[in-house]
């Protein structure tokens, strides 16, 4: 009887791939992505992306277009340092969509390089590995709060608690919910909507919403699933980027207009000596 081997981290043959040879003079500060690979981004460059390695190692990187060229830029230097990249190392990248890249590294000897252990300088990369999760819809904003994973340490916990408390002090006469920003929510362009709010205030056929901050509106696609869950889709990442929404921030949503489904947003910033609600 043939026994199937256990599934391992791998760059799937079904995913679009490209390879690069590491040359420090050209690749230590940024790494070029082949221009022909741009077609796999569907016309939307994954500005805030994640590079993942085996053993759940992950790194934030920014993908930017400079002229006609595309690069991994901010965050790439940390990846180079943590993985001790050397001249001649061979990197195979696989794009999984949703701003996630998988990578396999091979040394000059032709063998897979050992998984790097993040240094003390960049332990946040190690913590990030636990933050990138699949989207698991929650039935309430409280459940969303419980599942958030932030950078470790007493100060980070205190910052999160202050932001949550500040958001809880917002009084609204409209239907509302609160969500603590998880890494996936600020990177992938998707954000779960609490199921309790969806059941009470969202029509099953509704496909669009508007999120409002101050006097500006952002159109956002609503994605509903047969299991009763819903999330923000296209347009949400524009809101996140334009308003510098960060991991740990608490966003309060108020349904101020039902016909066009306008959600007024208040953002309570996690960072800082005192919470700052916008």
TrEMBL record:
User: May I have one GO cellular component term?
Assistant: nucleus
Q: Which residues form a coiled coil?
A: none
User: Where in this chain does the record put each TF-B3 domain?
Assistant: 16-109, 176-271
Query: Known CDD domains for this protein?
Result: B3_DNA
A UniProt-annotated Pfam family: B3
Database matches in InterPro entries:
B3_DNA-bd (IPR003340), DNA-bd_pseudobarrel_sf (IPR015300), Plant_B3_domain (IPR050655)
Top-level taxon of the source organism: Eukaryota
Where in or outside the cell?
Nucleus
Q: What is its main location?
A: nucleus
GO terms (molecular function) for this protein are:
DNA binding
Keywords linked to the UniProt accession: DNA-binding, Nucleus, Transcription, Transcription regulation
**Name of the protein this chain belongs to:** TF-B3 domain-containing protein
């Amino acid at each position: 009887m043939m026994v199937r081997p256990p599934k391992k981290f791998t760059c799937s043959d079904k995913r679009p791939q490209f390879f690069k040879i590491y040359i420090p003079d050209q690749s230590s500060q940024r790494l070029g992505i082949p221009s022909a690979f741009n077609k796999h981004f569907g016309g939307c460059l994954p500005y805030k992306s994640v590079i993942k390695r085996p053993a759940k190692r992950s790194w934030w990187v920014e993908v930017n277009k400079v002229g006609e060229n595309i690069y991994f830029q901010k965050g790439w230097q940390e990846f180079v340092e943590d993985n001790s990249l050397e001249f001649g190392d061979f990197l195979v990248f696989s794009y999984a969509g949703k701003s996630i890249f998988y990578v396999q590294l091979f040394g000059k000897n032709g063998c897979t390089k050992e998984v790097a252990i993040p240094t003390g300088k960049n332990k946040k990369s190690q913590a990030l590995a636990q933050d990138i999760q699949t989207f698991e819809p929650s039935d309430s904003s409280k459940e969303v709060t419980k599942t958030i994973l932030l950078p470790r340490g007493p100060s980070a916990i205190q910052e999160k608690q202050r932001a949550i408390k500040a958001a809880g002090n917002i009084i609204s006469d409209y239907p509302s919910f609160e969500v603590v920003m998880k890494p996936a929510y600020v990177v992938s362009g998707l954000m779960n909507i609490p199921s309790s709010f969806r059941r009470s205030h969202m029509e099953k056929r509704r496909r669009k919403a508007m999120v409002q901050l101050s006097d500006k509106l952002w159109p956002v696609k609503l994605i509903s699933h047969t299991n009763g869950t819903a999330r923000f889709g296209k347009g949400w990442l524009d809101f996140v980027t334009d308003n510098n929404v960060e991991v740990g921030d608490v966003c309060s949503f108020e349904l101020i207009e039902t016909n066009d489904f306008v959600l007024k947003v208040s953002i309570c910033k996690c960072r800082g000596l005192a919470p700052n609600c916008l």
